[in-house]
Amino acid sequence: MYVDDGAWASKLALKDRAQGTANHLVAVIKAANIDAELPESLSETARQFSALDHTMKTTRQNVMKLSLVLRQVQDANFSVLDNLRATDQAHESLRIPPPPPPPTSSSPHRE
Predict the structure, then answer these.
(1) What's the distance, CA 107 to chain centroid?
(2) Quick one: 89 exposed, middle or buried, by C-beta within 10 A (0-12, 13-18, 19+)?
(3) Which pLDDT score is estimated for 82?
(4) Residue 2: in which H helix or E strand, if any?
(5) Looking at residue 19, what is its pLDDT?
(6) Alpha carbons 111 and 92: distance in angstroms, whole number
(7) Does residue 18 carry a pLDDT above 70?
(8) Rounded alpha-carbon distances, angstroms, from residue 71 to 14, 77, 97
(9) What three-state secondary structure class fits 40?
(10) Spatial distance between the Cα atoms of 3 and 69, rounded to a whole number of angstroms
(11) How far, in whole angstroms, is CA 66 from its chain's centroid?
(12) Which residues lie in Pro residues bias regions (predicted)?
């Protein structure tokens, strides 16, 4: 009976060692996968930063173009306002005062 118990204990110990080895192997495989994916994620991050740099340059150029267009629109707006003022001034200067009222017949005339 003790022999069977010893064999049973050896089988349990062997099973525990096998399970521990399997767990260790799974951990090593996971670590290897993480290590294998790490350079890929680093290169993907580098690609994203490279694209970000290009996007930032393009955005800056677009902002500069928009600023130029905004200045041109402001200049055109000021020009329109100046022309409106000049038109108002010209209109005022061209106004002919109404003629004086005609003399009334009741007013005495000197002859």
Answers:
(1) 83
(2) exposed
(3) 93
(4) helix 2-94
(5) 85
(6) 40
(7) yes
(8) 83, 10, 42
(9) helix
(10) 96
(11) 14
(12) 96-105
Q: What is the DSSP letter of 107?
A: S
Angle formed at CA 43 by CA 40 and CA 44, multiple of 5 degrees: 85
Which amino acid, residue 73?
V
Of these ranges, 17-26, 38-47, 59-68, 97-106, the one predicted with the greatest mean pLDDT is 59-68
* Count of beta carbons in the 10 Å neighbourhood of residue 48: 11
Copy the structure tokens of residue 17: 């060692």
Alpha carbon distance 76, 17 (integer Å): 85
Measured between alpha carbons, how far is residue 28 from residues 23, 31, 48 in Å? 9, 5, 30
* pLDDT, tens digit, 9 for 90 and up, residues 69-96: 999 999 999 999 999 999 888 878 887 6
One-letter amino acid at 110 equals: R
The token pair at 77 is: 């707006």
Q: What tokens appear for 16 in the block?
A: 């525990």
Q: Which of 2-16, 33-47, 51-65, 76-90 has the lowest mean pLDDT?
A: 2-16
